[in-house]
Design a protein that fits this description.
By secondary structure, this protein is α+β, with helices and mostly antiparallel strands. The strands form two sheets. Strands 1, 2, 3, 4 and 5 form a five-stranded mixed beta sheet that branches. Strands 7-6-9-8 form a four-stranded antiparallel beta sheet, with helices on one face. Strand 4, helix 3 and strand 5 form a beta-alpha-beta unit. It comes from Blidingia minima.
Length: 237
């Protein structure tokens, strides 16, 4: 049976870049930083849904020394790309950035991410917020739109047709949507998918955008996967 590989991970270094940009030789540090990156993204996506986050890039590029204790301080740069950044800046730009920085610092120093025998390192979080254009034509925006319809008890076939009809065909060459679970409350879970245009998943130079999310309905969780194709890298067509 064929196995499905993550379309973004397959294209790293070709059409995709890493969302976490850092390097370390220590195994324990690598494990801790990976867990911290996941915790940071989960915290932001859970607590700032109204900001319509598109991408979160985390970079660790230097270590400073505390002026008093001379202990090393890990500097973590968090670049947040949001369609509605006003939801992140409720208390003014400077104060809101300080609040977000402190919350993310507490996430990084969570005891679950650090062994009891290890000394808790100090972290300095430097967040930046960037506003992006509407993501309605991107995979995340398509999935968000479809999930909203499904959670409002719209039949899945009607929700699929409405979502596809609302897309702007100029900005993409193909889209594929897959739903899985107890569709329309059926006793047996199944998988349904819809495809429009070309989505060449086996072409490495193809610029594929992909997202996987879950919709919480009255009949249980539904899996939502969206692939979009916008062209090929290095191609003029």
């Amino acid at each position: 049976m064929g196995q499905k590989i993550h379309p973004l991970g397959l294209r790293l270094g070709i059409t995709q870049e890493h969302d976490s940009k850092w390097i370390t030789r220590e195994t324990f540090t690598r494990w801790r930083w990976l867990m911290q990156d996941k915790a940071i993204r989960d915290f932001l996506n859970t607590n700032y849904k109204e900001a319509l986050l598109e991408k979160i890039i985390i970079r660790r590029d230097q270590t400073a020394l505390d002026k008093k204790s001379l202990d090393p301080i890990n500097i973590v740069r968090v670049w947040i790309y949001a369609e509605n950044p006003q939801a992140l800046l409720k208390f003014g730009k400077s104060h809101s950035l300080k609040v977000i920085s402190e919350k993310l610092r507490l996430v990084c120093t969570n005891t679950k991410l650090i062994d009891s025998w290890a000394k808790t390192p100090e972290y300095k979080i430097l967040p930046r917020i960037y506003q992006i254009d509407s993501s309605a034509h991107k995979a995340s925006g398509i999935a968000r739109n479809l999930i909203e319809k499904l959670e409002n008890r719209t039949p899945f076939r009607r929700a699929l047709k409405r979502t596809i009809s609302e897309l702007q065909t100029r900005e993409r060459k193909g889209v594929r949507i897959q739903l899985s679970g107890r569709l329309n409350g059926a006793d047996i879970a199944r998988v349904e998918w819809y495809k429009q245009g070309r989505v060449p998943l086996q072409t490495l130079r193809a610029q594929i955008d992909y997202v996987s999310k879950a919709a919480k309905t009255t009949h249980g969780m539904l899996g939502v996967k969206v692939w979009t194709f916008t062209g090929e890298k290095g191609s003029a067509f």
